[in-house]
Every structure is written in structure tokens, then in C-alpha cells.
Amino acid sequence: MSDYSDTEAAPAVTPAPTADGPPFAECVLCRKPTEYPESYKGITLCPVCTWQEAQRTACSG
């Protein structure tokens, strides 16, 4: 069940910025370069680790 009524919109989610070129932030799991700029704050995962994390959470039901 949603916390928002039919007339109240959910807050917009802004996507993480992608880097146009080096330097790239390191993945927090495997230390490989990610698609995020080095200045990005927060947890950064490479595409492979993002996919693996999604698989783990989907199967943890």
C-alpha cells in the first residue's frame, strides 16, 4: 500500500549523475571504475555489482 493518496504525488527521484570522462568513482565492492564521477557522494557500484546486488535482493524474498 502506498503512503500517498490518489491526489498526492510521490516525490520525484533524481537519477545519479554520470561522468563524461575520467576520473570515475570506484565501486565500493570490487574497486573497478563506475559510471559515476569521482565527486559523487554516496554508494557507487559498477554495473556488474549493481546487477548482482539486484539479483541478491530479488531472491531474498
Helix content: 10-25%
Lateral strand order in the biggest sheet: 1-2
Strand portion: 5-15%
Low-confidence spans: none
Given the C-alpha coordinates, what overall shape results?
flat
What class do helices, strands and sheet pairing give?
alpha+beta
| Average pLDDT figure | 80
- Counting DSSP E segments of at least 2 residues, the number of strands comes to 2
Tell me the number of helical segments per DSSP (H or I, 4 or more residues long): 1
For the sheet with most strands, the description reads: 2 strands, antiparallel
Gyration radius over CA: 16 Å
How many angstroms separate the termini? 18 Å
Keywords:
alpha+beta, two-stranded antiparallel ribbon
